[in-house]
């Protein structure tokens, strides 16, 4: 079974992260597969809406650190950057259902979604500094824009977990839904969107995002450069060793 599966029902493309035993932690191949699904959906006239969700009790635990250490991203093109650009350039509505843990990239990717429904037990975290890294997916730009600098600094620099209600108050999450109703609610919104004129939806989305598109693309470019430097640093190597050994950094 693939780690990411997609199925079209009517005009909705459902994309499911399907690695529950690893809390849907992303490998290089998963980044590529997810990007391919979005790129294909963007060019498929039969797809009006993408619905993104996950199997198991967690949405996404961020990077699979073992795979990540074996395949660290380069400053230029990488599997991660391909998905970043696919998300930035996806002009159709993207509806997401988040249950359980959304860690690192599992949180920052959500800033590109149009509707984010979180289960009431969902937990979010941006532990980049603890791994001696920097945030990605344009979040160094998007989170201060959305939350304000002070709140973004709190989440990024401290890296502490926060719950679904706080995520909704900040504006990361559209609404908090009981876990048992989460996917049904996201699916209902996707269907409402699929019944609307697609051209108008795309035009509205482009207009809302155009004001900061150039700033976002510049942020992604700079993040990728700094991230590639940080992941190869002695500080990051020690942080990763400490993570696997379940100890504090030296």
Furnish the topology, listing elements before pairings.
Elements: E1 4-9, E2 12-17, H1 28-42, E3 49-54, H2 65-70, H3 79-88, E4 94-98, E5 101-103, H4 105-108, E6 115-119, E7 123-125, H5 139-147, H6 149-158, E8 162-163, H7 164-170, E9 175-177, H8 182-194, H9 198-231, H10 234-245
Parallel strand pairs: 2-3, 3-4, 4-6, 5-7, 6-9
Antiparallel strand pairs: 1-2, 7-8
Helix pairs in contact: 1-3, 5-6, 5-9
What do you see in this structure?
The model has no long low-confidence stretch (mean pLDDT 95). The radius of gyration is 17 Å and the shape is globular. The longest helix has 34 residues, at 198-231. The strands form two sheets. A six-stranded mixed β-sheet has the order 1-2-3-4-6-9, sandwiched between helices. Strands 5-7-8 form a three-stranded mixed β-sheet. With 250 residues, it is an alpha/beta fold. Helix content is 48%, strand content 16%. The protein has one domain (4-180): Alpha-Beta Complex (2-enoyl-CoA Hydratase, Chain A, domain 1), CATH 3.90.226. It has helices spanning 28-42, 65-70, 79-88, 105-108, 139-147, 149-158, 164-170, 182-194, 198-231, 234-245; strands at 4-9, 12-17, 49-54, 94-98, 101-103, 115-119, 123-125, 162-163, 175-177.
Keywords:
10 helices, six-stranded mixed β-sheet, single chain, alpha/beta, 250 residues, 2-enoyl-CoA Hydratase, Chain A, domain 1, three-stranded mixed β-sheet
Question: What fold name goes in the CATH topology slot?
Answer: 2-enoyl-CoA Hydratase, Chain A, domain 1
The arrangement of helices and strands along the chain is EEHEHHEEHEEHHEHEHHH
Question: Structural class, from helix and strand content?
Answer: alpha/beta
Count of discrete domains? 1
**How does CATH name the architecture?**
Alpha-Beta Complex
Distance between the termini: 40 Å
């Amino acid at each position: 079974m693939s780690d990411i599966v997609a199925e079209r029902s009517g005009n909705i493309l459902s994309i499911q992260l399907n690695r529950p035993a690893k809390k849907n932690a992303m490998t290089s191949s998963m980044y590529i597969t997810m990007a391919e699904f979005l790129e294909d959906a963007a060019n498929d006239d039969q797809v009006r809406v993408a619905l993104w969700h996950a199997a198991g009790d967690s949405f996404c635990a961020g990077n699979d650190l073992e795979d990540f250490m074996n395949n660290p991203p380069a400053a230029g093109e990488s599997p991660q950057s391909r998905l970043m650009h696919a998300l930035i350039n996806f002009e159709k509505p993207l509806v997401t259902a988040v249950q359980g843990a959304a860690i690192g990239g599992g949180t920052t990717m959500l800033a590109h979604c149009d509707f984010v429904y979180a289960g009431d037990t969902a937990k979010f975290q941006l532990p980049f500094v603890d791994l001696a890294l920097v945030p990605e997916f344009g979040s160094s730009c998007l989170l201060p824009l959305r939350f304000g600098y002070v709140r973004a600094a709190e989440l990024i620099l401290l890296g502490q977990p926060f719950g679904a209600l706080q995520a909704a108050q900040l504006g990361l999450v559209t609404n908090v839904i009981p876990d048992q109703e989460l996917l049904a609610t996201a699916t209902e919104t996707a269907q409402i969107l699929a019944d609307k004129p697609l051209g108008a939806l795309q035009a509205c989305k482009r207009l809302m995002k155009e004001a900061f598109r150039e700033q976002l693309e510049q942020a992604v470019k700079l993040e990728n450069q700094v991230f590639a430097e940080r992941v190869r640093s002695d500080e990051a190597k020690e942080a990763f060793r400490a993570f696997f050994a379940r100890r504090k950094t030296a």
